[in-house]
Amino acid sequence: MARFFANVTLALIGDAVGLIVAAVLLDDMTLDPASFWLALVIFTVAFIVLQPLAIKITLQHSSALAGGSALVATLASLIITDLLADGLSISGFTTWLLATVIVWGASLLAGVVLPMFLFKKTLARTGGPRGPRSTTWR
Q1: From CA 113, how far away is CA 2, in angstroms rounded?
Q2: Which of 7, 74, 129, 138 could form a disulfide with 104 if both were Cys (CB 3.0 to 4.6 A apart)?
Q3: What predicted TM-score, i.e. pTM, was given to this entire model?
Q4: Is residue 28 part of a domain?
Q5: Is 93 inside a domain boundary?
């Protein structure tokens, strides 16, 4: 249960970083601060639901496409969030593509970097990066 909450927390933080970075970098993407939290929750829930579905579909058709499933889930989550939340607005094909890549990349980066800071003690106890069970090659 603790792992689930840790994953959801990391997803929320990573998605928040991704949405904010994309909104700052892209002129045709706006993120209203007043309804940011609603947009963030909608996006994160949509992604959590769509990601396993996208993986399953891509693996059925071609395992080579499995890596792109996160991009597909990110785009679908942005579309759902844009439709359901007034706080997110994206216009233009190029902006949609760039927003998808930026949100995906920032979320991925946050998902890799944040655990090292937020869960440092837990990683050390369980043998995560630089933990007691990690092997140092000399």
Answers
A1: 19
A2: 74
A3: 0.78
A4: yes
A5: yes
Count of structural domains, the chain: 1
The model's pLDDT over 36-52, given as tens digits with 9 standing for 90+, comes to 999 999 999 999 999 88
Supply the range of the domain harboring residue 32: 2-120
The answer as to whether 130 is a domain residue is: no
- What is the distance between the alpha carbons of residues 92 and 5, in angstroms, rounded to a whole number? 35
Residue 117: its pLDDT value, please?
Answer: 77
CB hemisphere CA count around 72 (13 angstroms): 15
Residue 91, both tokens: 């216009």
Residue 95 within a domain: yes
Separation CA 54–CA 73 (nearest Å):
6
Sequence-ordered strand ranges (E) for 1-138? 29-31, 88-90
